Amino acid sequence: MSNVLNIRDLRLRFRGYTGVTEVLHGISLNIRAGERVALVGESGSGKSVTARIVLGILQELGSAQIEGGLEFAGQDLNKLSRRQWHDLRGTEMSMIFQDPTSSLNPVFTIATQFTEVLRRRDARLPKLAARERAAELLNSVSIHDHDRVLNSYPFQLSGGMNQRVVIAMALANRPSLLIADEPGTALDVTVQAQTLKLMHDLVEEAGTAVLFISHNLGVVREFADRVYVIYRGRIVETGPTAAIFENPGHAYTRALMAAVPRITGGGIPEIDDVDTAFLDPIVTHDGGGL
Amino acid sequence: MTPILSLKNISKNFGTGANTVQAVRDVSFDVIPGECLAVVGESGSGKTTLANMILGVFGQSAGEILFDGQPLPDRRTLVHRKAIQLVQQNPLSSLNPKRSVGASVRLGLDVYGIGNKADRWSLVEHALEEVGLPADFRKRAPASLSGGQRQRVAIARALACQSQLVVLDEPTSSLDVLVQARVLRLLNDLRRDKGLSYVFITHDLSVVRNVADRVAVFKSGQLVECAPTREMFEAPKQAYTRQLIGAVPVVAPQELRLRDRLANKETL
Amino acid sequence: MKRTLFILLRNPLSLLGLILVLLVIILAVFADFIAPFPHHRGAVIDFVYFNKGPTGRNIFGSDLVGRDIFTRIIYGYRISLILGVVVLAISAPIGTMVGLLAGYLGGKFEFVLMRLTDVFLSIPPLVLAIAMMGVLEPTLMNAMLAVTVMWWPWYARLVYNIARSEREEGYVLAAEVIGASTFHITFREILPNCLPAIITKMTLDMGFVIIIVSSLSFLGLGVQPPTPDLGSMVAEGARYLPDSWWLTVFPGLAILLAVFGFNLIGDALREIFGADQ
Question: For A269, B86, B88, C130, which has the most beta carbons within 10 A of its beta carbon?
Answer without folding.
Answer: B86
